[in-house]
Amino acid sequence: MSYDLAVIGSGPGGYVCAIRAAQLGLKVAVVEKDETLGGTCLNVGCIPSKALLHTSEMFEMAGHDFAEFGIKINKPKLDLPGMMSHKRSVVDANTSGVEFLFKKNKIDTVRGHGKVAGPGAISVTADDGKQTTVAAKAIVIATGSEWTPLPGVEVDEDRIVSSTGALSLPSVPKRLVVVGAGVIGLELGSVWRRLGSEVTVVEFLDRILPGIDGETARQSQRLFGKQGITFKLASKVTSVKTSGKALKVAVEPAAGGEGEELAADVVLVAIGRRPFTGGLGLAEAGVAMDERGRVVVDAHYRTNVDGLYALGDVIHGPMLAHKAEDEGVAVAEILAGQAGHVNYDVIPNVVYTAPEIASVGKTEEELKDKGIAYKTGKYPFSANARARALRIKDGFVKVLADATTDRVLGVHIVGPYAGELIAEASVLMEFAGAAEDLARTCHAHPTLSEAVKEAALAAWFKPIHL
Length: 466
Prior knowledge:
- By secondary structure, the chain is of the alpha/beta class.
- It folds into three domains: 2-146 and 274-335, FAD/NAD(P)-binding domain; 160-271, FAD/NAD(P)-binding domain (3-Layer(bba) Sandwich); 349-460, FAD/NAD-linked reductase, C-terminal dimerisation domain (Enolase-like, domain 1, 2-Layer Sandwich).
- It is built from 14 helices and 22 strands.
- The strands form five sheets. Strands 1, 2, 3, 4, 5, 6 and 17 form a seven-stranded mixed beta sheet that branches. The protein has a five-stranded parallel beta sheet with strand order 8-15-9-10-11. A five-stranded antiparallel beta sheet has the order 18-19-22-21-20, sandwiched between helices.
- Helix 1 packs parallel to helix 9, helix 3 (46-64) packs antiparallel against helix 4 (80-104) and helix 3 packs parallel to helix 6 (183-194).
- The longest helix is centred in the first third of the chain and has 25 residues, at 80-104.
- The radius of gyration is 23 Å and the shape is globular.
């Protein structure tokens, strides 16, 4: 089997790269070790977690908020198997959708574990042990990432779980301890909190959501605390004892000192993710790796080995599906002789909690560190008419603009549908737009997006409705 391009991995970066390359006329194959296509994102990551986040929000709204809208119903009863069935149907629809797109674009799928076997060659070992070789002019490593283990704590996906196990718990744990206050820990912790768990989040740092704008993170933590999530910051989990009916979680201050013991029914380890590069034959091929185990690539995603490229979670940059997708398009276009490019200054980040948290561009901390003079414009959702009608008034929009040029450098949102609202900020920044440009753009009324306009008005001159 000989191809113009062979991709190892069918996650968002891999399958998008394959499709784009096929659209540009290349003969393409994708090597996938798992039974279904779509990688972590579609199978045990982005997609199933969003299904559970939405259904758990609906459950909580029915139980606590309907009366405020003049809707009276009996207390809702949780059907967890039904909720999990919905999750599986969403996953199935998305993974089968990728299969359809592969067939539509005449992309061959080679099942098995792929390993770089030399210049332009991939050795593929199927589940039954049968081996085949895929030859290609270019090979792309797009194998994504895996959850990072916590030293001294063994994940059994029963009582001590990774994000994968947390997506399929058979019952609602009375007490859930989440290790890690990053995106995954907060999202999955909020799912089970809404379904009835007492949730405690233990974080090594003195803040939640490292990398997010500081004010945005502080406001979000305050709102999560009001919802009932307990935070133990600047703390570390040193062990989890499993001998008793309840798990005993040993927690100590990160800086040292007297510890405490937390009782839990389930512990979720969510301290981050690491590149998945094991068993790919990269070391044998002489592929350069950095100190974090990531594949080193140049500006055109080429490794130091001729004909071998890499993208997504296995290289530098944020571990985000849409970042990998954009890189997939860029690599495909480069291989087809075009000028593929990714603007890393305009990659949005979304935390799908309630309220949602979204950001794009620089944080205030980054601008201060770089000595860039900037203006800040803020607008609260409590002053937005649509948010009042929805009774989702927590949060704000913050626009950061260059003090001299008025160019928008960053936008940060805590509030309803923040993940959707951040898109117009991304478009504006992609075209080097100013706060005045956004402020003078007519927005429909009444909409949540008017809060974005008002924040831009505040950064440029003055808001109208505040």
